[in-house]
Design brief:
heterotrimer, A mainly alpha, B alpha/beta, C mainly alpha, A: mainly alpha, MetI-like fold, 2 strands, about 5% strand, disordered C terminus, C: mainly alpha, two-stranded antiparallel sheet, transport (chain A), transmembrane helix (chain A), MetI-like_sf (chain A), ABC_transporter_permease (chain A), membrane (chain A)
Chain lengths: ~300, ~425, ~280
């Protein structure tokens, strides 16, 4: 590329990303820097405002906090179960929908409906469905899976799994829709060529669909990781903010909320946990990206 | 070329609309600014909606009456999520001139210097406190002995009973025992006589169990504000309750599959429920066919005990219109206005004279709640209550299920809370 | 042999989709029927799915008891539509730049955007509130639209879509003398219709369902959004399920309409190069 061309491209790029840069600086980067500053202080932002520099003490405290460890373990369990299931399920459903079946439009619209409601409203509906005498218990008892109803949301050994089911149920349609628009962008000539070679359905899926859809998978997994790591709404509603019973629904976002909004003078500690959470998500995403098929520059391999 | 133009047009439209948005914002904010003189004053008043549509209407009517009387205008700020919104408002310096303060959050707000002492205003206007129920009024006295709010209304807990189920078991309301030991025996009899019925439904909340926990002489929070939930006296006070739960004499609403105590009691499959007076309007509106009554809670360990939940009107220390704010507090908590409000909103007035004016002591449904106001424990315990409450409510359901013993559970909760309190140095 | 295999896989596909649709729809059917029930019937344990009698009382109540309810619908619509339009333009442009244009700091910018998606929202609430206050846009529509004028997650999504697009078309257009904006709007956007429609739906939903921002930034009742309005059926000691369910049904309706309208874009099935 010549210098003039490079300069031209630079100006073009500036025009394209300027609005994003403005919002990024004002509404995200500045607050993040501020949060980082808070995390190094013991702060009181209410009434008699005071900042007391404590260095990394908040971070050290977080490392020694058994609740933070427990929340991290809950969150990790949650991520490891939810992300693979929702990604695979979304891709399978999208593939089936895209396979040229009849009523494709109808099915797609039906499956999309959960995405339309806010997660808090959905959680409330789900609390009825999972309740002691709710439909899930009657169904499983009719199927003779067990005889005594399970109080899913009040039992420390089941409540997190009930929340996982809620989450998978409500996010699969969204990721399915993203996959579907990705699938429709795949050149059909590739499938035709494979047909001529006599490839069967599964071969085509593994050899063409999955590699071709990799950037979308990348997106779906990354967003899945980020949203599950930040899980807040469902545990907050189910446990009324306590993270109980017995810390079984305690997530990192919930701890952050407790320190930031339920107590005065712990904003610095809340910020420190938030920054640690960000770092954890970032590291895991980067590890994932290393192992995924697409490199960071987006040039492909 | 057509597409090209369309593209530019879209970008231009987006940019213009962003600019317009910034413009709009500036316009609207400037109008909400100052306006200092006399009747031009606008007070911002912060509150949460409460329990019924009639309560909201009654509040609105009060504000209108105040504006009519003084010319001071009122801007309402409804708190849909009190914790989050008030915190943001206080940090941002946008908190209302006067706002609701719940007794449990009062100590931390007062010690942070957020609230204005009302003493000088009270002195000037010869405001007297003797008419108020003492526990409700003293709930808003600061550690410095000054008054930081006037209680607007309150609720205590009452024992709701299902008439039909009592009759079916062969009892009358007057057969309900007055002491806790007798009451547990009564629950056992009910359980035998009424299969499939839960004798008693309750909420696993610190705010509901605090008076029981303190009935043996210990306090849930020590003088330094640390959690004291694992005090042997507290553990022994809670034991009968945990046993009763395990025997099925009493169950939390969650344990029997309901989303709220009202729903469990309203189902007609529960004999008793210990709830606040707010449940009266809920039952009347949502479970019209249910026949029920209320009576005082049985005594706990030989003494009358109960909880009192109260909310004050308090003034923001940063308010620019302190005299007008006091005028409004004084107006809203005056005898005549409190009577009007309590009647319309069907809430309990904090002034004894208003209670007798409204004949609440003879009101069959309300009398048990009013009687308890004289001896009830206020829902207030130092600056770390929110933290201690969270830890208690986190562990208590697992204790009831027998996954953790009462002693271990409360010890862990206490240690975890105190470690946090020490670290954060509140 | 081949047709039989196809037939079986078709059947499997239909069965799978039907079962999954049933699971997906059940809560909605439940909520739909609940919206016609009185409170006591909704919370009653073991009550049948179908209401005892269909009553419009809940719908009547929310429109009469809260005279502002229609206004909240309009507020939500205005904010969501304006916000979505702005987002589509800016997110697509940025996503394209990150995928296609070469400029110094591109990877750094991309990494920063990724990190910003990862920051937990709870911690940004208060700093953002202070910024809103400084800008003087609290309690206005702008407070809800401006900070969300771009959405990093969808910039990321658009970038992922654009990366897999063939470059050849753009290169030939460049030879024809089209400028970058020209290429973007004449070549890239028409090819990405389905991705943009997808983005539009999700951005719209994010605005429509947003709860925290309106909660903190909007204080005047007449400026409430629907999600905030729904909260008013939640009293201090309980939730009026019957009204919430009716209101939720009304909240979902406009989105279903939007979805049906945009549905045909998903179906365009834009085959690359346009020759198919």
């Amino acid at each position: 590329m010549s210098r003039a061309e490079r300069k031209k491209e630079l100006i073009q790029a500036a025009v394209f990303v300027l609005p994003t840069l403005a919002v990024l600086l004002v509404f995200t980067l500045f607050p993040v820097v501020y949060a980082f500053y808070l995390s190094l202080n013991k702060v009181n932002l209410v009434g008699n405002v005071s900042y007391q520099f404590v260095g990394f003490q908040n971070f050290i405290n977080a490392f020694n906090d058994s609740r933070v460890a427990e929340a991290l373990w809950n969150t990790a369990k949650y991520v490891l179960i939810v992300v693979p299931i929702q990604t695979v399920l979304a891709l399978i459903l999208a593939t089936v929908l895209n396979s040229g079946i009849k009523f494709q439009k109808t099915f797609r619209s039906l499956l999309f409906i959960p995405t339309l409601t806010s997660s808090s409203a959905l959680t409330l509906i789900f609390m009825f469905i999972f309740s002691l005498n709710g439909p899930i218990n009657s169904l499983l008892m009719d199927l003779h899976v067990y005889t005594q109803p399970i109080n899913f949301l009040n039992d420390q050994s089941t409540v997190l799994y009930a929340i996982m089911a809620m989450n998978i149920w409500s996010t699969v349609p969204m990721f399915m829709t993203i996959y579907l628009s990705g699938l429709q962008d795949i050149d059909s000539a590739m499938y035709e060529a494979a047909d001529i070679d006599g490839a069967n359905m599964f071969q085509k899926w593994f050899k063409i669909t999955i590699p071709q859809i990799a950037p979308v998978t990348n997106y779906v997994v990354m967003m899945g990781l980020i949203s599950t790591f930040q899980l807040f709404d469902q545990p907050y509603i189910v446990s009324q903010g306590s993270g109980g019973p017995n810390n079984s629904t305690l997530t990192l976002s919930l701890i952050i909320y407790q320190y930031a909004f339920r107590q005065f003078g712990t904003m610095g500690y809340a910020s420190a946990i938030a920054i640690l959470l960000t770092i954890v998500i970032f590291i895991i995403s980067m590890v994932f990206r290393r192992f995924s098929s697409e490199d960071i520059t987006g040039e492909g391999r | 070329m057509h597409h090209l133009k369309k593209g530019f047009w879209m970008v231009a439209a987006a940019v213009v609309s962003m600019l317009v948005l910034v413009g709009c914002g500036n316009g609207s904010s400037s109008s909400s600014g100052s306006g200092d003189k006399g009747s031009n004053v606008t007070l911002t008043v912060g509150f949460w909606k409460g329990d019924s549509a009639t309560e909201s209407q009654a509040r609105k009517d009060e504000f209108k009456a105040f504006t009519k009387k003084t010319g001071i205008k009122i801007r309402e700020k409804v708190y849909n999520d009190y914790n989050t919104q008030l915190m943001t408002d206080l940090v941002g310096g946008t908190a209302p001139d006067i706002f609701y303060v719940d007794s449990s959050t009062f100590p931390s707000l007062q010690q942070k210097g957020v609230l204005e002492s009302l003493d000088s205003y009270m002195k000037k206007d010869k405001f007297t406190s003797s008419d108020f129920y003492k526990p409700t009024y003293d709930a808003f006295k600061g550690t410095d002995g000054k008054q930081y709010g006037v209680p607007k209304d309150y609720s205590t807990l009452g024992l709701y009973y299902n008439e039909a189920l009592l009759t079916k078991a062969g009892y009358k309301a007057s057969d309900i025992p007055k002491t806790d030991t007798e009451f547990y025996k009564f629950l056992a009899q009910l359980k035998d006589k009424l299969p499939g019925v839960t004798p008693f439904v309750f909420s696993p909340l610190l705010a509901r169990q605090m008076y029981i926990m303190q009935s043996t002489g210990a306090k849930i929070v020590d003088s330094k504000g640390n959690a004291n939930l694992d005090d042997p006296k507290i553990i022994s006070a809670l034991e009968p309750m945990v046993d009763a739960d395990k025997k099925g004499l009493m169950k939390t609403f969650k344990e029997i599959g309901y989303g709220a105590p009202q729903d469990a009691f309203g189902s007609g499959k529960v004999v008793f429920s210990d709830e606040g007076s707010w449940q009266v309007s809920g039952l009347q509106e949502n479970f019209k066919s249910l026949k029920w009554g209320t009576t005082e809670l049985p005594s706990t360990n030989g003494k009358q005990a109960n909880m009192v939940f109260t909310v004050s009107w308090s003034m923001n220390a940063q308010s620019k219109h302190k005299n007008e704010s006091w005028q409004l507090i004084n107006f809203l908590t005056s005898k005549s206005e409190m009577a009007t409000y309590a009647k319309k909103a069907s809430v309990l007035p904090t002034r004894k004279s208003v209670a007798s004016e409204l004949n609440l002591n003879d009101n069959k449904q309300m009398a048990p709640f009013v009687k308890a106001a004289n001896y009830a424990t206020p829902w207030i315990a130092g600056t770390n209550l929110a933290l201690i409450q969270t830890r208690y409510e986190n562990i208590f359901p697992s204790i009831l299920q027998g996954k953790v013993s009462l002693k271990t559970g409360l010890t862990e909760a206490t240690q975890s809370a105190n470690k946090d309190i020490k670290q954060q140095g509140n | 042999m081949k047709t039989r295999g196809k037939k079986i896989s078709r059947t499997v596909a239909y069965v799978l989709l039907t079962i999954y649709s049933a699971i997906t729809l059940y809560p909605f059917i439940w909520a739909f029927f609940a919206s016609f029930k009185p409170y006591s019937e909704i919370v009653k344990v073991g009550a049948p799915l179908i209401p005892h009698t269909f009553s419009m009382a809940n719908y009547q109540y929310i429109f009469t008891q809260d005279p502002l309810f229609p206004k909240w619908i309009i507020n939500s619509l205005v904010i969501s539509i304006v916000g979505t339009l702005i987002n589509i333009v800016f997110n697509s442009m940025s996503g394209y730049a990150l995928a296609r244009l070469h400029f110094p700091g591109r990877n750094a910018l991309f990494m920063i955007i990724l990190v910003c998606i990862m920051v937990p929202a709870q911690i940004l609430l208060i700093p953002n509130y202070l910024i809103m206050k400084a800008l003087g846009i609290l309690d206005s529509y702008s407070a809800l639209i401006l900070p969300s004028a771009v959405n990093f997650a969808y910039i990321f999504m658009m970038r992922q879509f654009f990366i897999s697009f063939p470059k050849e078309l753009e290169e030939s257009a460049q030879l024809d003398g089209l400028g970058r904006l020209g290429i973007f709007y004449k070549i890239v956007v028409p090819m990405a219709k389905s991705s943009i429609a997808t983005q539009a739906i999700f951005v719209f939903l994010a605005f429509w369902n947003d709860f925290m921002r309106p909660l903190l930034y909007i204080t005047t009742e007449s400026k409430y959004t629907l999600t905030l309005g729904l909260q008013s059926f939640q009293t201090q000691h309980g939730t009026q399920w019957n009204y919430i369910m009716a209101a939720a049904m009304i909240t979902i309706l406009p989105i279903i309409v939007l979805y049906v309208l945009l549905n045909r874009y998903f179906m365009v099935g834009m085959r690359i190069g346009g020759e198919k």
